[in-house]
Design goal:
The complex is a heterodimer of chains A (about 230) and B (about 300). By secondary structure, chain A is mainly α. Chain A has one domain. Helix content of chain A is about 70%, strand content about 0%. Chain A has eight helices and no strands. The longest helix of chain A has 24 residues. Chain A is globular and about 45 Å long. Chain B is α/β, with parallel strands linked by helices. Chain B has a single domain, classed as Alpha-Beta Barrel (TIM Barrel), CATH 3.20.20.100. Chain B is about 45% helix and about 15% strand. In chain B, the strands form two sheets. Chain B has a seven-stranded parallel sheet with strand order 3-4-5-6-7-8-9. Chain B starts with a helix and ends with a helix. Classes of the chains: A mainly alpha (about 230), B alpha/beta (about 300). Chains A and B meet through α1 of A and loops of B. Bound molecules: NADP nicotinamide-adenine-dinucleotide phosphate. The site of NADP nicotinamide-adenine-dinucleotide phosphate has 31 residues of chain B, from α8 and α11.
């Protein structure tokens, strides 16, 4: 039997569903009521993006990554998963990347219309990440304290940021700012799948749509269509 | 070596001597409600046939609620006279969680601490063992195993030195899911080891062909991991909602599916201990009861295997 073919996804996840749900809960308890401030921050960034203040919107996102990297990954998840410290560092790096892109203006999308598919998917992802994601766990029958929120828990932070990237960035910068949220959320989606959490497929589905939109925007950008170039 | 360790060690050897005197040649399956023990070939020390695994189940970090729940599982394990607890540096916070439970409950004489070393060895074997002992809050380990044969030559040399210095009592190697059996067999055949841990359960019987006979021939104690195939086996059987067949109740003493699956494993003459992992005291209780005699005969075991095949 070849070594790798004998592994199942579950064999690679070193904790149980119960422990992961408790992790979500403990992170919420330890940060409450920071969630409210981060929700306001996320909505403010959304308003800035709608007002085409793209650089400022990116700068508004950076604290969410720093907070989630520190609290979710480094402070809590690192106790359970050897990969979490690396993810935590990647989250901090993402905070720096977003700040630098915002400060320098490199790769900012200057188009004024939201009437294209990537932008619409981007705006929807932002709203899903900031507003709808915290409702998923309670709607799936889990407690409010197990709700995941933007800027605290990893997945809504990644989803929201990917949405912003689709709206405010283009070309190389678009991918530079997307690679960490995309890979982090993909790993997380697979973890949720292995733990049989009901929202695993929703997260992975969203990532599929976002990836398609990223490719779409890149191709359109290369052709000089609808990206303001 | 601490005074406490000396006492524990002496008691274990005394118990080993008494067991060796009291038991017939086959040494195990006397009818009683106490947990069956099998003598470790290297020493004759009796080992309860049901141990406790900790992969996934004991990785709970510093969560106070889950720490208290896992301590209750360990407490129940000791109440049943449980011995072997198996962990690994690859199991996240599990060694710390065992340490937490042992600090809370104390270390009973029955405790048989089993840890593992992992790659890269790179001269770190001693360091790894020392760090794990600190996490468990123990002076020494009863057994240190080389996890999945990683860097086994280097680890084995270092573990031998630790054993000679009295820092560990037994040395072992592990594999699982039927992986690397050829290399495992080669190490079993050519090296002086006390324990071999491998996957063996009613649906994964590959080890019966070569590894289990070799273990008997070489006097190596066998620990069976994944006794429930990671949980699928027992949860699947319980979900079906069917009772254990009446013949298994009457002939093999199997009242529950836990009995059925675990007794099948530990009644193999080459197997010394099965290590189901659990997060729940009621499951632990069920698992520990499977270690009571009577145990199924060879004929009965085949019937059990056929029954599972037809499900
Ligand atoms: N290479 C290696 O060295 C290696 C590899 C694999 C495993 N191991 C060792 O072997 C141990 C056992 O293997 P494993 O943990 O993979 O799998 P396992 O023991 O076959 O199955 C564990 C699962 O069974 C469930 N369970 C236990 N008792 C039950 C009962 N009475 N009724 C219903 N469900 C029950 C547990 O869920 P609940 O929490 O709900 O009870 C848990 O999810 C590991 O923990 C580890 O220590 C070593």
């Amino acid at each position: 039997m070849s070594d790798w073919s004998s592994y199942r996804l579950q064999d690679l996840i070193p904790f149980t569903q119960e422990v992961y749900l408790r992790l979500l809960q403990r992170v919420s308890e330890d940060t409450w009521p920071l969630q409210i401030a981060l929700l306001v921050l996320g909505l403010a960034a959304f308003a800035l993006a709608l007002a085409h203040r793209n650089r400022l919107a990116l700068i508004f996102l950076a604290p969410a990554w720093i907070c989630s990297g520190l609290v979710f990954h480094l402070q809590h998840y690192a106790e359970l998963n050897w990969a979490a410290p690396y993810l935590g560092l990647a989250f901090l790096a993402q905070g720096v990347i977003l700040s630098l892109l915002g400060l320098t203006g490199v790769g900012i999308d200057r188009q004024k219309s939201f009437g294209n598919l990537p932008a619409l998917i981007g705006l929807s992802s932002v709203l899903i990440g900031v507003v709808a994601y915290p409702l998923i766990a309670p709607l799936a029958g889990f407690s409010w304290m197990q709700a995941e929120s933007f800027g605290v828990h990893a997945d809504p932070t990644a989803l929201t940021t990917l949405g912003f990237c689709l709206v405010v960035l283009r070309r190389t910068a678009l991918w530079l700012a997307s690679i960490i949220p995309l890979s982090g959320a993909l790993l997380s989606g697979l973890t949720l799948l292995a733990l049989a959490l009901p929202w695993a497929s929703a997260l992975l589905g969203m990532l599929g749509v976002i990836l398609t939109a990223l490719v779409w925007k890149t191709v359109a950008s290369a052709r000089g269509v609808s990206d303001g170039s | 070596m601490t005074h406490q360790y000396n006492r524990r060690h002496a008691l274990k050897l005394l118990a080993a001597g008494l067991t060796a005197l009291a038991l017939p040649k086959a040494a195990v399956l006397a009818a009683s409600t106490a947990t069956v023990k099998k003598p470790i070939p290297a020493s004759g020390e009796p080992l309860p046939v049901i141990g406790l695994g900790t992969w996934r189940t004991f990785n709970v970090g510093s969560d106070p609620q889950l720490l208290a729940e896992r301590a209750r599982v360990v407490d129940a394990f000791f109440q049943h006279g449980g011995g072997l607890i198996d962990s690994s540096p690859m199991y996240g916070s599990a060694p710390d969680v065992i340490g937490y439970a042992l600090k809370r409950l104390g270390k009973p004489d029955t405790l048989f601490s089993a840890e593992k070393v992992w790659s890269p060895a790179g001269g770190t074997t001693r360091e790894q063992v020392g760090e794990l002992a600190r996490r468990w809050g123990v002076e020494t380990f009863d057994l240190v195993q080389i996890h999945n044969l990683t860097d086994w030559r280097e680890h084995l040399a270092a573990l031998r030195e630790l054993k000679a210095a009295g820092k560990i009592r037994y040395i072992g190697i592990t594999t699982s899911h039927g992986r690397r059996h050829a290399e495992f067999e080669q190490v079993m055949a050519s090296e002086e080891i006390d324990f071999a841990q491998l996957t063996y359960n009613i649906t994964h019987r590959e080890a019966e062909r070569r590894l289990l006979p070799l273990a008997r021939e070489r006097g190596i104690a066998v620990i069976a991991n994944r006794p429930y195939d990671g949980g699928n086996l027992i949860k699947g059987l319980k979900r079906r909602g069917k009772q254990v067949p009446q013949w298994a109740v009457e002939e093999c003493g199997c009242k529950t599916w836990a009995d059925f699956l675990l007794k099948f494993i530990v009644s193999h003459p080459a197997v010394h201990c099965a290590i189901p992992a659990t997060t729940r005291v009621e499951h632990l209780n069920e698992n520990m009861r499977a270690g009571h005699s009577p145990m199924p005969s060879a004929v009965c075991r085949e019937r059990m295997a056929r029954t599972i095949e037809t499900l």
